[in-house]
Amino acid sequence: MGPRACPNYFGKRSNIGFCKIELWELDPAMEIFVKLKQSREEIGINGCAIDVGFAFLNSCVGVKKEAAPIADRLNADRENSQLVGTGYKLVFLAATYKNLGDREKAFSLYRFLHRPSRPKPVQYHQSQSSQP
């Protein structure tokens, strides 16, 4: 089933690619992300998970010329609130920067991921019927 036949094709395949990365099966993972990137370009959609996986893999195998510009674009998108990041995308982006030797950006992303959530203040309303 190709990318046009299944609307969840890119998400499912990128998840499989990230599983391969977690198993440290980098060659099969790279094959998946290269195919996803090619399919995405043919169809013309945006897939930041594909870019994150591709950047991370390139940083692992030492292809810094490929990884750095992708990581910088994704990080800029995150800072401009254009990258809607789930945790794993940002973890892999931070790991990409670590592999590229940019510890400051890596730690910044890790700190962003571990920031304390701030609960919304509770507003209490006095009911009209309880007034004398």
Fold and architecture overview:
The protein starts with 8 loop residues before the first helix and ends in a 19-residue tail after the last helix. Helix content is 65%, strand content 0%. The longest helix is centred in the N-terminal third of the chain and has 18 residues, at 26-43. The protein has 132 residues and is mainly alpha-helical. The protein contains six helices and no strands.
Largest sheet: none
> Percent helix among the residues?
55-70%
Average of per-residue pLDDT values: 81
Give the radius of gyration: 20 Å
Task: Give descriptors for this structure.
mainly alpha, 6 helices, 132 residues
Concise structural overview:
The chain is mainly alpha-helical and 132 residues long. Helices cover 65% and strands 0% of the residues.
Please describe the topology of this protein:
Layout: H1 9-22, H2 26-43, H3 48-60, H4 64-79, H5 87-100, H6 103-113
Helix pairs in contact: 1-2, 1-3, 2-3, 3-4, 3-5, 4-5, 5-6
